[in-house]
Design a protein that fits this description.
19% strand, Purple Acid Phosphatase, chain A, domain 2, five-stranded mixed sheet, alpha/beta, single chain
């Protein structure tokens, strides 16, 4: 079982194509590609943390949740009303929703948050901060131990957190 991280899919949001300069001609193409790319790296037994902005509307959210591999755990972000609405209508047997602003995952040595953090638990002991905020000014940086998991920065795929940290440590040791 692996742990993956991602954010900002914005399933069903036509405006995401222009806003984030995504290479899709329609919202349907974007939704299909996001699901296909997710499922190309995530297996049914893996855990995927989604750090906000998963879907624009409840119908798109429900369709995506049913099509995606893995045990999905949502942290609330800026636009997550759709997830909250489908919990009210169909429940959340297929996924979990955490209303926490910050979630610690000690086994992966990370602290998760949609919003960028200046400080986080265990920062001085090598713990990485993983954020989902999709602004390019908050890019992944091995020196500051910050990883931005917005799907737009990772070929629209969830990232394997263990491999990503290993890569950042490798890059840091070469500097």
């Amino acid at each position: 079982m692996k742990i993956f991280l991602t954010s900002n899919q914005q399933f069903g949001r036509n405006g995401a194509i222009d806003t984030y300069k995504r290479p899709f001609s329609s919202v349907n193409e974007m939704n299909f590609e996001l699901i296909d790319r997710w499922n190309s790296v995530v297996s049914e037994d893996d855990t995927v943390y989604v750090l906000g902005n998963f879907a624009w509307d409840p119908e798109s959210a429900e369709l995506a949740v049913k099509a995606l591999h893995g045990n999905i755990i949502f942290l609330n972000g800026e636009y997550d009303n759709a997830i909250e609405e489908i919990i009210e209508v169909i429940g959340s047997d297929d996924f979990s929703f955490l209303y926490n602003a910050i979630e610690e995952v000690p086994e992966a040595n990370v602290v998760l948050s949609y919003w960028p953090l200046m400080d986080w638990p265990e920062k001085d002991k090598g713990t990485y901060s993983v954020i989902g905020y999709p602004d390019k000014k908050y890019q992944t940086n091995h020196k500051t131990k910050i990883i931005n998991c917005a799907c737009d920065f990772w070929d629209f795929k969830p990232i394997d957190i263990t491999k990503t940290i290993e890569l950042l440590i490798s890059v840091g040791s070469q500097c």
